[in-house]
Amino acid sequence: KSGVKVGIVIGGGNFWRGAFAKEIKRAQADYIGMLATVMNSLAMCDIFNSCGLRARVQTLIPMPQLAETYSRAKALSYIKENKVIIFGGGSGSPYFSTDTASVLRAIDIEADVILKATHTVDGVYNKDPAEHPDAMKYDCLTFKEAHEKHLAVMDETAMVLCEEHNIPIVVFCGTPLSNISEVICGCKIGTLIKKEC
After folding, report:
1. 8 bridge partner residues
2. What stretch of H or E contains 194?
3. pTM of the model
């Protein structure tokens, strides 16, 4: 309703977290994780459509019986038609995180900003607030500061790509749900990371 156009990259950790699979080779664990993201994408798309939001799923790994194979041109056309585009399958390659997949898709669709919703913290802190009551939250950080301070915002590849393509990131807590609409409207929630503060 606000006119904001939305692309979503979904994780799959609720089904499968490959980092914990010690007996399975890394590449195979990553592929299983990519399939988990497709499961979440299909579920979210169905929920959106049942609520009257027009949504489409594209996957980086071809599985035409379930979803469209990713096409930048098609994704851009859906966004122009005010459809929510949901990207499943991560980056389509092992050894890359969902963070990197998010940034790659943001670059492709010429996104203005990446919104990274977390489950627990309301932004980026100088140390883990769950373990350190004196942890300090940053309102704004530069990419350089985030790198120099070794802050776990996103994986390094994703951060470098964001800086190179000048795409700011807002890290915020996804609950309560009102936070999502507030951050989309530009309210100062969470931590903003960009080239210059």
Report:
1. 86
2. strand 191-194
3. 0.90
